[in-house]
Structures
1.
Amino acid sequence: MGRYVTVSAKVKRELLEEARRLGINVSELMRRALEEEVRRRRLVRLEERLRGKRDILAKIDVDEIVRLIREDREA
């Protein structure tokens, strides 16, 4: 795994104390939340890129491509 860096966030003291009382591992929770958000945003970006490509792919005539491939193979 890559190198680690320290990330900090300011939260109300009461919130941190309550989280500790509830047995919440704040570091693990923050790490997981950040990983999930990064994963989610990557998927959103990928979906956006695919939407743009769909318009391009819709213009391609599949029958024409098949015909050209067959002609090429026969040549």
2.
Amino acid sequence: MKLNSDVLRKMINMLAVTRPDEIGCDDCFEQLSEFAELKLAGKDPEKVMPLIQDHLMKCKDCREEYEALLEALKAVK
């Protein structure tokens, strides 16, 4: 990867929003179904599971996985 000014700026921005209690994709993925079920039940998963919400805001891949899961669960209910 070439480190041009855009890449460096993105890296610095990501460091600025990193939390000490941040979770990774594996931990997020393990809890996605619970997060989605809370959402479908009309609960506020963002408050119950703030680390998952934080990760979903930062990680495009996990967010897309969550959105697909949510749509699949809506289709079967």
